Description:
By secondary structure, this protein is of the alpha+beta class.
Amino acid sequence: xxxxxxxxxxxxxxxxxxxxxxxxxxxxxxxxxxxxxxxxxxxxxxxxxxxxxxxxxxxxxxxxxxxxxxxxxxxxxxxxxxxxxxxxxxxxxxxxxxxxxxxxxxxxxxxxxxxxxxxxxxxxxxxxxxxxxxxxxxxxxxxxxxxxxxxxxxxxxxxxxxxx
Length: 164
């Protein structure tokens, strides 16, 4: 796992699409997989990955070179999301610059394990988006976010069991 930074050209920040959601989705690009360069493109609070998927598809524009045939993109798979059904997480791949780089862009649900790959600055952005305290070390920040997300998981499982 590589440390994710917010240095991507298109870094979107934390988007609070659904204010009551406790599900967080990340859009990340992995450039030249062997070098493990991860670029965090954005984070989205929402009950489904669909809006994060749209952002992931939009990020491909930053990789294209309008001066090259086909934008310099070849060996592409699922760039426009045609293979991604509603409610599923997007995954796309392309070789860029006539084979100079490979890029894989994906949407993933953020878990406790994922949080460890974020810099403290990103963790604080996540906490600020939910008006939670941003004090403490990295482990404390992760624990605070994790508790917030887990509280939502408990709410969803209780409401499902009542409806049966």
